[in-house]
Design goal:
This protein has 247 residues and is an alpha/beta fold. The protein has nine helices and twelve strands. It is globular, with a radius of gyration of 18 Å. The two termini are 32 Å apart.
Length: 247
């Protein structure tokens, strides 16, 4: 599904990713861990197409397409979803309005009919219930006045509505208490644990992986993946830290 070959980039003329390679197949969950400044969020933003992240080498294909040649909205319409560590607030725009426009924009690009208001509300209620989010929250401006946990649950509702093929989740566990972590983990499993979908989880800690069991765990350091293993690698990192692996 996603093939990254020798990817390098710069941010503000500073090299961050330095020859990173990674392959993700449909049906797989991959977790990336690593120390601060390793390039984890940079990888997510580069795949999502964030401006200012200049690719200087390598290639990325998504379902056979040259991902780097696509604009951010084209990547989203192709089935890529980027979950942010710090979801932004959009005053004056309700969640329902934002989500309906986002979904129908993607459907039009794919040649599909847009959902009617009634069809969309039914879908939104279903996905909100899955994440334990009150529908009244979705009537409010995007993330305005939300707690950290509410922002992350709202973002998972967004993921459920858009129904991507590949979800790249950048520290989704950040700011979540124990109960919210369980709900978000269950939501990721229900939405994305399917044979035709895949997940790339970026996290500092093993705790989210208790709920979303990864097939592979990768350690990222200084812009490269330096070690890959199974779920046991996350437990090892939790016990011993990154120093020995990085050394």
């Amino acid at each position: 599904m996603l093939q990254i070959n020798n990817l390098s980039n710069t941010v503000g003329d500073k090299p961050i990713l330095k020859g990173l390679s990674l392959s993700i197949n449909a049906g797989e969950v991959h977790a990336i861990m690593g120390p601060n400044g390793a390039g984890k969020s940079t990888l997510a933003y580069t795949l999502g197409g964030r401006p200012g992240y200049e690719v200087t080498g390598g290639e990325v294909t998504f379902d056979g397409q040259d991902l780097l040649a696509l604009a951010p909205h084209e990547r989203a319409a192709a089935g890529l979803f980027l979950g942010f560590q710090y979801p932004v607030e959009i005053p004056g725009v309700s969640n329902l309005q934002f989500l309906r426009e986002s979904l129908n924009s993607q459907r039009r690009v794919r040649g599909e009919e847009p959902l009617s208001g009634a069809e969309f509300i039914k879908l939104a209620k279903e996905k909100a219930a899955l994440l334990g989010l009150d529908m009244e929250m979705l009537k409010r401006p995007v993330n305005v006045g939300f707690s950290g946990g509410e922002k992350k649950r709202a973002e998972m509702v967004q993921m459920g509505i858009l129904d991507p093929r590949l979800a790249i989740l950048d520290e989704t566990d950040s700011g979540l208490d124990i109960d919210a972590l369980k709900i978000v983990g269950a939501g990721i499993n229900a939405i994305m644990r399917k044979p035709d979908k895949a997940v790339l989880l970026i996290t500092h800690y093993q705790r989210l992986l208790d709920y979303v069991k990864p097939d592979f765990v990768h350690v990222l350091s200084k812009g490269r993946i330096i070690k890959t293993g199974g779920p046991e690698l996350a437990l090892e990192l939790e016990r011993e830290g990154y120093a020995e692996v990085v050394a």
